[in-house]
Fold this protein.
Amino acid sequence: MKDSEITMESLKNNLIKNHYIPDNSTVTTIYLAFKLKKPVLVEGPPGVGKTELSKAVSRSFGMDFFRVQCYEGITFEQIVGEWNYQKQLLHLEMSRIKEIDQDIFNEEFFIKRPLLQGFMNKNPSVILIDEIDKADEEVESFLLQALGEGQITVNDLGTFDIQNDLMVIMTSNSQRSLLDETKDRCLFLYIDYPSFDREVEIVSANVPAASNELVESVVTMINNLREMNLLKKPSIRATVDWVKTLLEFNSEKLDDETFKKTVSVVLKNESDKKKVLKKFSK
C-alpha cells in the first residue's frame, strides 16, 4: 500500500490484523508519520507495546525492519558500521606479495550495521531506535542529524543518501531527558497502560484460545496489581503470559489457588511477590 492510499481506518485495521490493538492517539501519530515523513518518539512505562508498535507497522505494510538497540556506551561504529580490519590487513599482505595496489577503503571492506543497512535498503523500511535514552547525547545528536538530513558520512568511504521511504520510530523509557532538538523534530506519542476493555482486546487477540471469562479475570487482577506500590508493575506482555500460563493449567478463570501458583509469572522480584500475596491471598 502506497503512503497516499493510507487512511486512518486502513491503518487501524492493518494494525489490528497484525495483533496490535492501537488507541486513537497511536493511530493518529503513525498516520501523520506516514504523511509528514517525520520520526516518531514513543515514551511510556516498560512493557506497554512501544517496541512492538514498530514491528506491527512493519508487518502491516510489508516494510523491511531494522533495529538499533541502544545501550550505555554505544558507539558510531556499532550503529552505522566499521572497517573489517582483518580483511583489510589480509588484502594488504596479498597485495604486497603480488606487488599490486589494492584499495582497501571501499564498501567491500566495510561492515554495515543496522542504521546504514536501513538507509541503503531499496524497499520501504521501518527502523526502530530502541531505548534512545540509554545512549549519550553525542549519539543522540548524530542519529537526529542523520535522520533529519537523510545522509550518513563515513570517513574514507563517503556519504550515503537514504534510498527508501524510511519510517523511524524511537522509543524512550525516560531514563534521561532527551535533547530539545530531538523532541522538536519528532512526532510525540505517549503509550500508557491500556484501559480495561482495550487490554482485554489485546490479550484476546494474542491468545484467541482463552475464554472471555479467563481474560477478564486476569486483566482485573493485573489492574489491581498496577495500583499497588510495586517495584515493577506488570506489563501487557505479563498479562498475556499469565493467560497463557492459566491455559496450560486448564483454568477457566483466575481463582485463589491458581493465583498463588502462578503469580510469579507477572511479579519479577520477591518483595513484590510477598506484598501481593499478603494482600490478595485468602
Remarks:
- The chain has a mean pLDDT of 90.
